[in-house]
Amino acid sequence: MNAVEVRDLTVAYRESPVLWDIDLDVAPGVLMAIVGPNGAGKTTLIKAILGLMKPAAGQIRILGKPYRRVASLVGYVPQRGTVDWDFPTSVLDVVLMGLYGRIGWVRRPGRNERREAMEVLEKVGMTGFAHRQIRQLSGGQQQRVFLARALVQDARVYLMDEPLQGVDATTERAIIDILHSLRSSGKTVLAVHHDLQTVSSYFDEVLLLNVRRIASGPVSKVFTDTNLRLTYGGRIAIIKDAP
Question: Does the predicted TM-score (pTM) go above 0.85?
């Protein structure tokens, strides 16, 4: 059973297709990058898989079922720029939000939930900021907090929209180490990613997207000069990892 399965997916804004006839299979335990130019539909694909956007056509399954039936098994890290960082809440409270799917919105988190949240904050190097207001954090720290919120769910599938955007090198390395750890434990991660130079070293598989699926599969087979030219309109060549 695939972790994520997309069939004949089309999503349109005002009758103009943003995604067109997308097919995608993602196996369990895979770390996949979603790569393409601006306006290619990368964020739209993430939102469609999460049920946040209604497709014009097609079918999406996560772990063989519609998203609404497995929502508690799916973690989501949104783009940092879409979050209201002025909302008056603490780092710990944000992470605890990741547990509401398990405990419900009525029951308040108890000692066990707070312990879980603190353990995850330790993983992302943010225990010292647990009671800090989120508006007081740097961009990289904010990204770590939202990653922690997803991790505390102990999901089986993670969808991340540009998790490395605007972070410093230390935070980027820490996030990638966490993603590799998720993969090692059998979790599946789909992440929108812009840095072509690091695709080969960070990810197992890649989806090249520009409204249509250009190619998807193992990085060693799919991430080629030819496919990148098709994806970016012939304006780019493959960039090798730095030695």
Answer: yes
